[in-house]
Amino acid sequence: MSTAAPRCFAAVGDVHGRMDAMVRALSKWERRRGRSLDFVLQVGDFEPHRDEADLATMAAPSRYRALGDFPNYAAGRRRFPWPIYFVGGNHEPYGLLDRLAPGDAIVGNCTYLGRVGVHRIAGLDVAALSGIHVPGLLTGRPPIDAIARTSNKAYIGFTEGEVLALLEAPRADVLVVHEWPTGVIAAADALDFERQRRSMRYDDVGNDYARMVMDHLAPQLVLCGHMHRRYRNRVGATEVCALADVDAGADAFAFFEATAQGIAELGD
Ligand SMILES: [Zn+2]
Predict the structure, then answer these.
(1) How far is the CA of 36 from the centre of ligand 1 (A)?
(2) 44 CA distance to ligand 1 centroid (A)?
(3) 7-266, what's its fold?
């Protein structure tokens, strides 16, 4: 990490097209704390549909299909006040995202980090992995031009090649993934996970590929979403920050300051 001036950034959980709610909550934090954000990292299920054609390429049951707020941003009627960088989740318009070059902005201040890569953002090395673990997709996805005659679900998983690309990267300050890495839940918190509505064994949560990448890169901070649940734990030298979805309110957001000493979480 460089010794640049302190930078302040936010992390945001699953947005599901509710960009206005995201912008409102982040602006509110700035006013309350009297600080300005330099950039925003978002953990996927962002749903930046410009129009119905983009929406048609998202994998989701029909009750979850909605255009959301993004058409206003795409048309320039609204604009993001800070640069937003996001990875892809399992609900995304991959017909749009997979045709962008990595690091390409969709609209001003809104950049998709691509399927995989390490990006220099405000002096931080930010590693990104889009998609979730789908065993059948590890060996590869169909070409994106086939999406109209293929299931949208054939595009929601990462591949082994993408995981390998991060295993060959030397290091990162921050890792952004959609699905949690395995083994990040403390045994002491196991009951909390087993008692919730969609009950699950705490040691079943997440995927081993994200965990391998986390162990290899040993970032100071891992950001993830997908479960719509806030959780924090320290694993070795890494702070794991899982975020709820934007509809959940404050649990969807976290705020950090990066200095020469490292990355520290700021309160809300
Ligand atoms: Zn979600």
Answers:
(1) 27
(2) 8
(3) Purple Acid Phosphatase; chain A, domain 2 (3.60.21)
